[in-house]
Amino acid sequence: MTSQPVVLTKTLLTGLYENNIPDDPENSLWNDLCLHHSKKVHDPSEGNQVFLEYTDEKEIKVELYQNNQLLDSMILSGKPTDNYFVIRKGSHFFTLILITSTVSKKTILGNDANADLLLAQGISSNTMFLESDVGDEGETITATYMRLGDTRPN
Questions:
Q1: More exposed terminus of the chain, fewer Cβ within 10 Å: N or C?
Q2: 45-67 pLDDT, tens per residue?
Q3: Are 84 and 108 a contacting pair, CB within 8 Å?
Q4: Largest CA distance in the chain
Q5: Distance, CA of 27 to CA of 80 (rounded, Å)
Q6: Rounded to 5 degrees, what angle do the CA atoms 62, 3, 103 make?
Q7: pTM
């Protein structure tokens, strides 16, 4: 991430954020968070605001709004660290006779000094035949989403 994170608090992380990325019309905060709930994906043009509510130690409630009207919501489970809330959902491991495959998905949320949302995501997969690596792929995404306010839309 390019910005330095500040200490994670429920009050700071809870807030209203822009959903769209001005220079990337194909992506959105909501869809980045849907890495862990693929059935919740929306067209990037749907929803202009995302409200995050850090509800308890291990959950964040996420709501998608379009002009103050609620379109969708989901719960993200994870663990807080000093500066981030870490979500590791969707990881799996399987062995099929002589082939072993692992896939891992991870999202990290935090705030910078301006209270804007910092997001980093990683997806990695590894396939092995017997004990030899056959393929190893990975992708990392980082983004900063502007904070619009402290309360959910009315």
A1: C
A2: 889 999 999 988 899 999 999 99
A3: yes
A4: 57
A5: 26
A6: 55
A7: 0.77
